[in-house]
Amino acid sequence: MDKSGLTEHISQQFNVELEDVRNKVLTMGGLVEQNLRDAIKAVVDGDSAICDAVIHAEEQINKLEVAIDDEITRVLARRQPAAGDLRMLTTVLKTITDLERTGDEAEKIARMGIKMASIENERIRVPFIELRHLGNDVRLMMSKSLDAFARMDIQTACEVIESDQEIDEEYESITRQLLTLMMEDPRNVRRAIDAMWIARALERCGDHAKNISEYVVYMVSGKDVRHSSLDEIAKAELEDSVSS
Q1: Res 244 pLDDT > 60
Q2: What does the buried/exposed string (b/e) look like for 188-218 if buried means 16 or more CB atoms within 10 Å of the residue's CB?
Q3: In three state form, how does the secondary structure of the chain look?
Q4: Per-residue confidence at 168, pLDDT binned at 50, 70, 90?
Q5: Tens of pLDDT along 208-231?
């Protein structure tokens, strides 16, 4: 991990504590990304066994969130960090919340996959190819957001933020397909609604990845860009580079 943007401390133990927090976040992120990948595969392939594994793995993700939260509380109490260190710890607290919620969405997808597999006799032309494509794009967003966090890379973070619009468009396209299926034949309604909930869960995962990238921009630059456009972010970065 590139630590060029981090503060060097007189206390070596403080550095160790911060590094441990970052590593645990990345471990948690890796589990979430794997769970998301497995949930998508389980739904598309109709594999209930993988669905069960995703649901079980969610417990480990929740435990990691609690452990990281507790560790940050101890660091804040002992070290009373300021400036960049405080932004980093604040970013971590927000990031693990979005990661945990992404894990919840993956579990939701897996449970929906079990339900859909149990009514195979009512199988319709669910747009599984489109769902797989949406899921893979969302997983890539999460992977890039975690990479941006690890390397404190604003450029990669901005790429993730920008790609959220594409995810929204894919979600809307799938929703239109499913609505058409329901109008064509009422027997399609049950499974089409299940598929729609899966697409919605994936779209929310994309939102969480976008959130994490916005936190990265704040961590590195100190600028809150949650309600800013990409042009505003780029302009602010250009102004900072010129002034420095």
Answers
A1: no
A2: beebbebbbebbbbbbbbbbbbbbbbbbbbb
A3: CCCCCCCCCCCHHHHHHHHHHHHHHHHHHHHHHHHHHHHHHHHHHCCHHHHHHHHHHHHHHHHHHHHHHHHHHHHHHHHCCCHHHHHHHHHHHHHHHHHHHHHHHHHHHHHHHHHHHCCHHHCCCCCHHHHHHHHHHHHHHHHHHHHHHHHCCHHHHHHHHHHHHHHHHHHHHHHHHHHHHHHHCHHHHHHHHHHHHHHHHHHHHHHHHHHHHHHHHHHHHCCCCCCCCHHHHHHHHHHHHHHC
A4: very high
A5: 999 999 999 999 988 877 766 666
Domain boundaries, the chain: 12-243
Q: What is the CA radius of gyration of the chain?
A: 20
Q: Which fold would CATH assign to domain 12-243?
A: Methane Monooxygenase Hydroxylase; Chain G, domain 1 (1.20.58)
| Contact between residue 217 and residue 157 where contact means Cβ atoms under 8 Å apart | yes
Dihedral angle, C-alpha 41, 44, 48, 50, nearest 10 °: 0
Distance CA 155, CA 159 (A): 6
For residue 27 the two structure tokens come to 């471990």
